[in-house]
UniProtKB/TrEMBL annotation:
Organism of origin: Pelagivirga sediminicola
Gene name, Swiss-Prot/TrEMBL: cysE
Species lineage: Bacteria, Pseudomonadati, Pseudomonadota, Alphaproteobacteria, Rhodobacterales
GO MF entry, a single one: serine O-acetyltransferase activity
Protein name (record): Serine acetyltransferase
Pfam families in alphabetical order: Hexapep, SATase_N
Chain ranges of the Serine acetyltransferase N-terminal domain: 14-118
Length: 268
């Protein structure tokens, strides 16, 4: 793992693209120079840039930026897969969000991406047994970004959370790779049970705005959940569900709904 990570930092097309765009951004808008330099151009790696951005965003009178920066740096050193996932997340946002025309935008401005990267540090803390610090990160992410992801949740890579307002992902939730979700999505429980109680979202799923997926249920790969739906039962792979409660209304419509981002049901 360490060797592969070293090779990645030596030849890193995502970071190279970000730094190239950052140089152009400073030329186009000199007043943004301080932000762009401190967030991107002063760093040698994406991991360093992410640690800085996360610590600056989450700092407060309770825990200052310097301490949070040390924690974030430790997470990236301790688990290189966090940085790999961040790169996949940036590419996912660029590919799927028509409002994203540069790689620097998620890093500088998109709270869905920023909240997700802070969660990844919190998840590392949780796995390291530092539960109270992980919960502090969860609290600050909720306060700053309006996104509440339990640090014990398991989330894959290549994730796009568009707009991201009022996202809630519970403790025992699992989200696979290449999943897209929009604002006000809830992956929640159905009561006070304390065991495995949250949804399991397979790879390639598209979850529309305001959808609620509740309980320990499986959402099959490459399925679509329509906006505003309340899903209470298992969804087979490659299907579209809609309604309250949600029911199967057809096929997914394509082989990669989370990438295509087509949210219209039978309308062309």
């Amino acid at each position: 793992m360490a060797k592969s990570h070293a090779k990645l930092t030596e030849c890193d097309p995502v970071w190279t693209q970000i730094t190239t765009e950052a140089g152009s951004a400073v030329k186009d808008e000199p007043l943004m120079g301080g932000l762009v330099h401190s967030s991107i151009l002063h760093h040698k790696t994406l991991e360093s840039s992410l640690a800085y951005r996360t610590s600056m965003k989450l700092a407060s009178n309770e825990l200052p930026e310097q301490i949070l920066r040390e924690i974030c740096d430790g997470a990236y050193r301790g688990d290189p897969a966090i940085g790999t996932a961040a790169r996949a997340d940036i590419v996912a946002v660029y590919d799927r969000d028509p409002a994203c025309d540069r790689y620097i935008l998620p890093l500088l401005f998109f709270k869905g991406f920023q909240a997700l990267q802070a969660y990844r540090v919190a998840n590392w803390l949780w796995r390291e047994g530092r539960r109270d610090m992980a919960r502090f990160f969860q609290m600050r992410v909720s306060e700053v970004f309006g996104v509440d992801i339990h640090p014990a949740a398991r989330i894959g890579k290549g994730i796009m959370i568009d707009h991201a307002h009022s996202i809630v992902i519970g403790e025992t939730a699992v989200v696979g790779d290449n999943v897209s979700m929009l604002h006000s999505v809830t992956l929640g429980g159905t009561g006070k049970e304390e065991e495995d109680r949250h949804p399991k979202i397979a790879d390639g799923v598209l979850i529309g705005a305001g959808a609620k997926v509740l309980g320990n249920i499986k959402i099959g790969h490459c399925s679509r959940i329509a906006a505003g739906s309340v899903v209470l039962a298992e969804v087979p792979p490659c299907k579209t569900v809609a309604g309250v409660p949600a029911k199967i209304v057809g096929e997914a419509g394509c082989d990669q709904p989370s990438v295509r981002m087509d949210q219209l049901l039978g309308v062309r």
